[in-house]
Design goal:
Length: 104
């Protein structure tokens, strides 16, 4: 295997450089090479098979055990709290549309 930087060096560079790529992310979403909906629908069978394999192999439970409560709490507090308000505000119209059939 070729010599590469340590995992911590790679992670540090990723964390330092990637946030500045937000404009590239936005440009890719605005102008994808292929249509998201049609390409995603083509993958429905593979998705279904993958989910079924994950269920049969107990991957959900394995992931929960690997993370544990402490990782869940840490990530929910460090990331979830700051994203909560903007996410709710951005979802207002979709929430109203989705809830309307149950209210009316």
């Amino acid at each position: 295997m070729p010599a590469i930087r340590s995992a911590s060096e790679i992670a540090e560079k990723w964390a330092r450089v990637t946030p500045g790529r937000a404009p590239d992310y936005e440009a890719g979403v605005k102008s994808p090479k292929k249509d998201w909906e049609s390409e995603t629908l083509k993958a429905a069978d593979a998705y279904r098979e993958g989910v079924q394999a994950a269920i049969s192999e107990g991957r959900f439970e394995k992931g929960v055990r690997k993370a544990g409560t402490s990782k869940w709490q840490d990530r929910a507090i460090r990331l979830g709290v700051t994203r909560w308000g903007p996410g709710v505000a951005a979802a207002k119209d979709a929430y109203a549309k989705g809830f309307a059939p149950y209210r009316d």
